[in-house]
Specification:
It is a single chain. The chain is mainly alpha-helical. The chain has three domains: 1-107, Serine Threonine Protein Phosphatase 5, Tetratricopeptide repeat (Alpha Horseshoe), CATH 1.25.40; 110-203; 226-312, no CATH class. The protein contains 15 helices and no strands. It has helices spanning 4-14, 19-27, 36-53, 57-67, 78-94, 97-104, 116-131, 135-148, 158-176, 182-202, 205-221, 225-241, 250-262, 266-280, 291-306.
Length: 312
């Protein structure tokens, strides 16, 4: 019989390609839950796939409501408050603000700033709406979350991680938005910078490196190649400090190459691309899914202006 951790890991692995199937599996997995933390983790996965990936907000909220009848539910513990928070986010995304406020009232904790639950709800909902292509609404909610987070959440406050995750996700969505205006570009940069700031507070050096690479791509999308180059090289410096293997340098080298290309430094861009190619040869495709496609995209970008013969 599958244990809960195996189920959860497989669910996160499969969720992007098979969100409906993963949501169905969540509804059949309650018997695997043995303690409160697992119940909260099941709720987070179910809320993510039912909301951000499927837009089935009400179904997700109904499932989370059913989890309150589970033997592991504890309303006065962080796991129980997390269930209420996930449900509040689903209600807010569906447009039911009253239901969202009702759930949010159960999330307050004396351990954290009074604004923390609302910051987390707004951040989670912003990420979900961005994933559904509702970028304007996502931007509004993220700006509200940032305003409420003026108290500067410490690492011990879950709002700090929520801002790190949402900042990254929103920056990605805005980078790809074909109709992004000047306000969207400003928020894109703010979102990426927010992710970088809070990942340094709550994450590992790898999280910070990834956030630096995200900032590089954000600046490229904003037409700021010089700033993009600085962020890519900051990511490489982190790798140097950690004496990291070249696999960790692949994405910083890709970003560096793109920035140099945008600056018209063709030879240097090709040099960085070559380093990325050599790093790619050391990478396990299971651990680094998408790296091959990302390198091919880099090659195509460089070839568009440089001529394919330079990349052989």
């Amino acid at each position: 019989m599958t244990d809960f951790n195996t189920f959860l890991n497989q669910g996160w692995s499969d969720h992007a390609a098979e969100p409906a199937a993963v949501f169905a599996r969540c509804q059949d997995a309650t018997d695997l839950v043995e303690e409160p933390g697992q119940l909260a983790a099941l709720g987070i996965l179910a809320a993510h796939v039912s909301g951000e990936h499927l837009g089935r907000w009400d179904e997700g909220a109904a499932f989370l409501d059913s989890l309150r009848g589970h033997a592991s539910y504890r309303s006065d513990e962080p796991s129980g408050r997390q269930l209420h928070l996930s449900k509040a986010s689903l209600h807010l995304a569906s447009g039911d603000g009253h239901a969202a406020e009702r759930e949010l009232a159960a999330v307050a904790s004396p351990e954290h700033h009074p604004a923390s639950p609302r910051v987390r709800m707004l951040a989670a909902t912003s990420a979900a709406l961005a994933g559904r292509g509702r970028t304007a609404q996502a931007m509004t909610l993220f700006e509200e979350a940032l305003a409420l987070a003026a108290y500067d959440p410490p690492a011990s406050d879950p709002a700090a991680r929520a801002l790190a995750v949402t900042g990254n996700n929103l920056a990605v969505e805005l980078e790809q938005a074909p109709d992004r205006d000047a306000a969207g570009t400003r928020l894109m940069k703010t979102a990426a910078a927010t992710a970088r700031r809070y990942w340094e507070r709550v994450g590992t050096w790898v999280n910070v490196k990834i956030a630096e690479v995200r900032l590089a791509h954000t600046h490229l999308a904003a037409g700021e190649a010089d700033l993009a180059l600085a962020r890519a090289r900051a990511a490489l410096s982190l790798c140097d400090e950690q004496d990291a293997p070249d696999a960790h340098r692949f994405y910083p080298w890709v970003a560096e190459s793109l920035a140099l290309h945008a600056l018209g430094e063709r030879a240097a861009a090709l040099l960085a691309s070559g380093r990325a190619e050599r790093a790619l040869a050391t990478m396990d495709s299971d651990q680094w899914p998408g790296a091959d496609a990302d390198y091919e995209s880099l090659r195509n970008t460089l070839a568009a202006d440089s001529g394919a013969e330079h990349l052989r």
